[in-house]
Amino acid sequence: MAGSLIYNAEEPIYIGTHQYQIYDQPEPPESLHRVAEVYAISHEWMLIQSWQNNTASSQMSVFDFMYYCGPTHHRIDVSLSRFSQRVTTEINVTQGNNTANAVNLEAIFMDCGINTGHSAVDTTEASKARSQDITVQVGANSSTFLYRKRVKYRICVYFKLGDDDKNQLRTVGAWHLSTPLEASYEVYVNTRDCLTVSDPMSGTSILDIPHPDGPAPKPEIRLWGMCTNKCKEWLHGAGFLSSDKQFRNARGNNEMEKFS
Prior knowledge:
about 260 residues; mainly beta; four-stranded mixed β-sheet
């Protein structure tokens, strides 16, 4: 019997933390880092292809699964018993698009990123697509369905700054607040995890997966006004200042203050 099509977490499940260096200035010494705390929201099986065998004997097909990075493009070639399809494994940002490119969320899910328990996002260029053959056995008078897993994550981002002593990193404070400057994203990750079943998958279940304890505490906060000009200029240029202003205004303070 086929499993559930969608597995939803009762609450976001912490998967791990990934740190990415935005810049590292030697003189005067200064570095800025993006820290991403990653939480799983759901797993969903996406149907790629199905086969139906109406004969009285078992049939075999080979599915040539090709991965590449780039715009979404689907192509199915049927030649004898070989099926070929190209699919993407990049991430799709559904929340937080205005600043997502600046913080390199893709790096979280690549081979050098955190261990999510799923295959990493492929970094192979389109001209050098990675392929994988999947042999599909379809029994007499039966069907087979091939699915690929798509995972939804919530990513909570903050920043750490080091200047005079780069070994002492501090959390960048929000604009005119005593709390961290933070951003939240939701993304879908198309993995390389595949599954073949004899019945179509349907329904929902609770997502329950092994996971580490919660994230480590954030370092001491450095107030926005005490951060370096380079740090503030980068965050402003990446769109985080305007986002922070909107958050502040949403809390009822509509006073416009000069960026400093």
